[in-house]
Each structure stands twice: as structure tokens, then as C-alpha cells.
Amino acid sequence: MRPISRHRFAALSLALAALATGLGACSGACSGGSTTPADGGATTVDSARADGPKAPESPEVLLDWIRGFDDCSFGHRGTLLDLGDRTMRSRYGDRLGAPDVVAFERDGSTFVHFKTRQVALSFVTTEPMVGEAGITIAARTRGGAAKALAVLLDGKPMGQLSLTKNEAKISEVKSTTPLEAGAHKLELRFVGGGKSTPDTLGEVDWVRIGPNDGDAPYAAPTRRDALVSTAIGGKSERAISLRGDAFARCAGELPSDAILTTSLGLTGGGDADVEVRVLRDRKEPVTLAHLTLGAAEAKAWRPFSVPLGELDTTAAVELRVTRAQKGTRVLFGEAKVVRSKPPAAKKPFAPARGVVLVVLGTTAPKSLSAFGGPRRTPELAKLLERGIAFPQNRGSSTLASAALASMLTGVGPRDHGLLDGDARLPKGPTLVSEALREAGITTGFFTANPTTSEVYGFDRGWETFRAHGPTEETAAPPVFDEPIGCVEAHKKDRFFVVIHARGGHPPWDATADQLKDLPPKDYTGGLDPRHAGELLAKARRVPPAIRYTDQDRERAAALHTLAVEAHDAALGKLLSALRLAGRDEDTTLLVAGDVTPDESAHVPFAELDTLDEAALATLLVVRPHRAVPFAPGIVEAPTENMHVASTVLDAFGLAAPAAFRAPSLLSLTDSKDRVATEPRIALTAERFSVRFGELVLSGAGEKASRLCDLVLEPACTTDVRTTHPLATETLHRRLFDGVAPTDGKRRTPTREEARLDPPGAAALKAWGR
């Protein structure tokens, strides 16, 4: 963690300028609460707070061939596609929807039948398949009404596999065309069958794409063959079992301290040669180890480990058996990639007695002086003298309501249900406020954003809920006045207060004297601050409903700056109220942004319909309460909105529910790690974007359309899927698991429509919706 310079402090305070919605006299304090913790409830007190430091944890597991079997790729004499297995769930083309197949058991094997007459399968080869004999595409099928199964590889016809009705058999087509390393698409199309329904045309068990190695019989290494539990030398281990000329490959975002650990064993007699390789896009494979196994490994497990080298990128680790005598199986017991050092023991701290979350609307972190921007936010700068900035924070949506919902539920938009601007927060996801109320903590929610009002379901679980719409005659400050009153009224209690401030979002507040001094000089346009949201919405229409000039654009930027700096002053009053109440030392304060505006757009400060990285780069600052041991500064660890929920509970000494996706920010205060071992997914009803390290896979609907490498191109406009096949496959699988319902086990909330009454509709109109 590097310290923040005085200049950077000033800039970060700008983010809080959005807080400047103002402060004043208390108009409504929080109700309820207790000065002592409640017993029971959904959360539990973390024993580490009272019993001293936690024991060091086990090394972080990054890849696991046993427990993560479904996330890995397997092959024998080439690539194997076991169509009915879970390893195939994200490989039915580049779609994110459920596969167009139905799997079922028949005679001890898992077959599939198609929901349509054809399917597309995606796979990656890490080495070219070349040679005089060419390649073979073999499949185990069972015939139905169709006469044949046509095979296309990367769009080129390869031939047809004959089908025999009600008979299971293996057939193949061959080609002399070499298959280059990279990503490929295999299409299977039923031929004939007339008007028969797709489920009666035929069935497929598996497909193999590999070198043409003669007439040697082929037995597919299915899950039950590859995932075993075997005793060697009196010790039983779960293991991956591979034959000769076979591999098991797992991929992820791997840091430079990653290490492979496993135990090696042999069954079936004979000996074998084994390699461990690291594979990266645009790099030659690196062989880390070459081992010969024999009689010793048949008598006792052989512990083995090897560092993976300087990576810090998306990479695959491949366990490969290059040679094995007939009948011999190589076992990789408990194979996994871990970090070489376990995380440091968490330092204990006394719980906070208060937590305040301030969420600033439509504020760009880079526009703030702490990040080198022009907008002055001295109060935020003061906060950062005892705080931590997380500049790598990434939003979960470009909808303000969805972003805040992720902060309060600890889950992403797919799981809390806010995928579009008209959706209402359903009752399914657990809110932080509900968990805290069970612990006897006073809760209050104050919003100046109409999309997080009671109409949109955000009033659930709060003892005090206040919503101020943009149509009110008063200026924005009341959204800060009432929390100040809440703090004063409950200065002896534990409390959690959320303020969703308007921030830099229009409409804006400006006095006549302020307007005289704002640029441009001698402005004669029609951009009225109190109706700016509605006017900008009209200017964004296609075609525009009003004329929007460069003078209007300059005036909008000036009004936005005025609002941001006013919010910073409001933040200062909130901090003063905490000090006067004697609660500054025992209160953790979080300042976050909901969405980041595109200030370069012709009509800026509007709600965005994109998921560009610039729009997702949102503000996140934490000033822990005094008891937390940390050093102020900047932490580069990748974070997202879901971290906020866990942080709130952690500050109070409470354990987060299992559903919360991200750890507490308080556990990252000393982090020097910039590698994300989990993907960060942003989602709306129409678009998606997943970031894994410096790689971003994005698209619309159910189809990915672009992979970009931010190291090569920060603007993220060039599609590099063809040159990054491993990354494409890895991110597509992670994205698929994060957003696609696959097996009925994932429950997503039923969408609820926000029902607007006339005042609610008027508020949205003033907001610019």
C-alpha cells in the first residue's frame, strides 16, 4: 500500500463533493435500537474480536482439479467433449443461455439429445494438430430418425457420421487439413429425419477431436474414469486418473506466488512419463517438470510441488501423461494450485459502534483532486488522512439502484434482481439492514435518488427510511440533515446509517448569485439547474427534442462541479456531527460512488446504457474506526460493490452470510496484491461485462462480442479473442457460471415491476428518466 500525497488527498475529496447535497437542522431522527448486542439472529459475533488473532489460514486455493473438476478440460489422444457432463456447460457456443441439449443416462453412459436439429460446441487446442495423417473427429452416437450427423469444424464441412437407429456405435470422419492451436467451433447437424422432433433424431455421448493415429481402439475417459479415490501404500486419496497421451487442464488468474501441489501415484503396473506445463496466450508453453514414474510410485504416494513462475495473468496449468504402458494409470492426488504463503493472520480489533455509508451519485473519481482531477473536496481530503482509497474498484452495474443494491445485499445484479431501471428490489436477498436489526443495531436509510425510494423496494428492513425526490422545493441538503439528527439522537447507541446522495446528478441546486459567476460568461442558454435532468434527457433523444449547444455543455459541467463541491461541504458537516456526538473514533465511514458519468459525451451526466470500464470505475474510500490497525493510503487490490456489505458487518464484529460474495475491505488494508482470483461481473438486462485481471469479456444479450486486454489497449475497443483463446474460454466459463441458470440449483429472484404513482413518475421525469 502506498501513501497518498497531499495533492492526491485533495483530489479524492472531490468524490465526496457529491455529498454536498447539504446539511441543516435535524428533521427526523432514527428510531429504535439498542445499546447492547442482541443474542441470536442471522449474524454471529466474530470470536477473533475477543479471543485475539485468528490462526493463520491455509494457503488460498486457486485451482483444484478434484473439487473444481467441472471447471477443467480433459483429453485423451486429443480433445474430448463429453456432451452430457458438467464440464461442457459453458461450451455450447458463445451463448450464455442454457445449452440446447437434454442429458440422460442410457446403459451406464450419459447421452444427450438436441432441442434443435443442430448444436455448436467450442473448444481450445493448445498445440497445433499437424502431420501426414491429418486429424480425426470421432463420436459415440445412437441413431434415431435421422440418417447421419453432419460435422463442421470452424465452418468447414468435414463429412458425415452415419447413424443406425437404436444402435450405439463409434464412427469418425477424417481430414488432412491441420488444426491450428487456438479457439475452435464444432457444429453437429442432424441430416434427414423429415418432420421428426429434434429429440427423436438421434443421441450423442461424446466427441473426440485429435490426431489420426490409426485404427487403435478408443475409450473415452469420462468423469467416472478420471475422478477416482484410490489407496496406495495404505493411504487413500482422491485423484485425477490419466492414461497415456492424456491431459487435465485448469485455468484461472494466477499470481506470481502460485505453486502446484499434488501426490503422484501409479496403478496397473508399468511406468509412465509425466509433464507439468504452464500455458498462456501468445506465449510458448513452458514445461515446469518432466518426471518418470515407476515401481516406487506404485507402492506409495510421491509428494510433488513446483512453483509456477512469474505469472500475474490468466494462465492454464496442464497435467499431462506423455507416455504410459498399456493398462497403466497415473494418479494426481489432491492436485491443486495454491498461493505459496497463507494469508497473514487477521489482526483483532474492537468492533465499531457506528457505521456510516455515503453513496455519491454520478461522480467520477478521476475528476477529484486526490486522483489528479480539478474538483476541490477538502473534507474528503481530511477523511483520507485517516482513510484508504481503493482506485481499482469496479461497479456491478451502470444503474444506480443496482449498484446500491449490491452494496446492501453483498450479491450481484443477477442475484438481487435489479437488471433494468424499472425493476423493484425483491424480498429474496438478505439486506445488511435486516442482519443488523437482528443484532440490535439502529438502522436508517436516507436517499435523494428516486430510483432507490420505497417505490423501488429500498425501504425494506430499515427502522427509519426517508426519501427526498428531485421535485421537492427544498435543495438537496435534507438528505444529510436527517442523518445528522439520527447520529445526535443515538449517540449512545450502535447505528448504521446509509445516505444515497444526489451527488453530481441533475437536477442541480444553484442560487442566482452562483449562476452569475458560473461559466460560460454571459450564458444565454436555456439549461435551468432545477430542470436540468429533464432537459438533458430531451437532448439525448434520437433525434434530439431540444437543441444542445457547446455553451449548454460548459454550463452543465460547471453546475456538476458546483454540486460535487457542495456535497463535500455536506460531508464535512456530517463528520463534524460525529465528532460533536463523541462518535468519530468508534465509527467506520465508507464513501462510495454509484455510477461514473461520461463527461466526454456530448450530453454528459446521463444514465448510461453501456458497461464500459470508464463507467464502471467507481469511487470507494474507507475510513475505519480507530480500533482497526491499518496504515492510511492507497490499496490497489481489485474490489467491487459487494465488498461494502461484508465490510459493514465486519466493522460491527459480525460474520457475513454465506451468500455475500466478497470479503471485507478491512481484510484488504495491508494488501499489496493486484491480482483478482475471482472475476468481477457487471450486468444489466441487455449487457454484460466480466473482468479478470486486465482482461475484459463483454457482450449483449446472451452472446459475447469482444475480449479486450487493458494492458495492450486501455480504451478496450479491439477484440482479441482470436489471439487469446485460453482467456476467452476461461472468462466465458466464469461469466457463464456467474449469470446463467444451468441446473436448476441457482435461484434468481422473480422480477418485480416498480409501480409508480403520480409523484413517483414526476420524480423520475425530473431526474431525467
Structure summary:
With 769 residues, the chain is of the alpha+beta class.
> How many structural domains in the coordinates?
3
Indicate the proportion of strand residues: 25-35%
- Kindly name the structural category: alpha+beta
Tell me, what is the CATH class of the largest domain? Alpha Beta
Q: What is the CATH superfamily of the largest domain? A: Alkaline Phosphatase, subunit A
- The tally of strands reads 37
Q: Which overall shape is indicated by the principal axes computed on the Cα atoms?
A: globular
Average per-residue pLDDT, rounded, comes to: 88
Which range best describes the helical content: under 10%, 10-25%, 25-40%, 40-55%, 55-70% or over 70%? 10-25%
Contiguous runs where pLDDT drops below 50 for at least 5 residues: 1-27, 33-53
CATH topology of the largest domain: Alkaline Phosphatase, subunit A
What can you tell me about this protein's structure?
There is one protein chain. This protein is an alpha+beta fold and 769 residues long. It has 3 domains: 440 residues, Alkaline Phosphatase, subunit A, CATH 3.40.720.10; 133 residues, Galactose-binding domain-like (Jelly Rolls); 115 residues, Sandwich (Jelly Rolls), CATH 2.60.120. Helices cover 19% and strands 30% of the residues. It is built from 16 helices and 37 strands. The chain has an 8-stranded mixed β-sheet with strand order 27-26-28-22-29-30-23-31, sandwiched between helices. Strands 1, 13, 14, 16, 19 and 21 form a 6-stranded antiparallel β-sheet that branches. The protein has a 5-stranded antiparallel β-sheet with strand order 2-15-20-17-18. Strand 34 and strand 35 form a beta hairpin. Helix 1 crosses helix 5 and helix 1 crosses helix 12. The chain is globular. It starts with 5 loop residues before the first helix and ends with a helix.
